[in-house]
Specification:
Blueprint (H helix, E strand, L loop, with lengths): L2 H4 E4 L4 E4 L14 E3 L2 E6 L2 E4 H10 L6 E4 L12 E4 L1 H6 L15 E4 L2 E8 L2 E8 L2 H15 L6
Antiparallel strand pairs: 1-2, 3-4, 4-5, 6-7, 8-9, 9-10
């Protein structure tokens, strides 16, 4: 069975529904389960990420790169919220620091009692400056990011 025969995708809501009955699933039931904020759909032994499946169902081709949720909400699979972008562009659309970042601010790290702001562009780091507080460093980071990564939500 083809996946298009088994599922329907609603681009305005980003929700998938089953068209066919499958073991304990009835036609019209919402497809997939939530895994760490992302929707995953099991079909014929393969677990698909709903955002990638949405791209396939809308375009007829699998994404060339990564599917980025423009509004950063991994559960929002509306067609208008998805874009196929290289990993570097997808990483630019982040709004939270990594969990191992001691400052808690994206683009800021502490070094010798000061706070350094830096930004990665084309696999190279751009040094923005050293600041007395993490808030000042983060503000400088945001300002520079708006210039260098134009088009990304911040």
């Amino acid at each position: 069975m083809d996946i298009n025969d088994a599922l329907v995708y609603r681009p305005d809501t980003g929700v998938f529904y089953w068209k066919v009955q499958r073991s304990n699933i009835l036609p019209g039931d919402r497809a997939g389960t939530d895994e760490h904020g992302y929707r995953r759909i099991l079909f014929e032994g393969v677990r698909y990420r709903a955002h990638r499946l949405a791209w396939f169902m809308m375009t007829g081709a699998w994404p060339a790169f990564e599917i980025d949720h423009i509004n950063r909400d991994p559960s929002d699979n509306r067609w208008a919220n998805l874009r196929d972008v290289p990993k570097a562009v997808n990483q630019q659309n982040r709004d939270k620091a990594n969990t191992n970042n001691g400052t808690g601010y994206l683009g800021v790290r502490e070094m010798k009692g000061r706070f350094v702001a830096r930004l990665q562009v084309n696999k190279r780091y751009v040094h923005i400056g050293c600041f007395d507080t993490p808030e000042e460093a983060h503000q400088a980071y945001i300002e520079k990011k708006r210039v260098l990564h134009a088009g990304c939500e911040i």
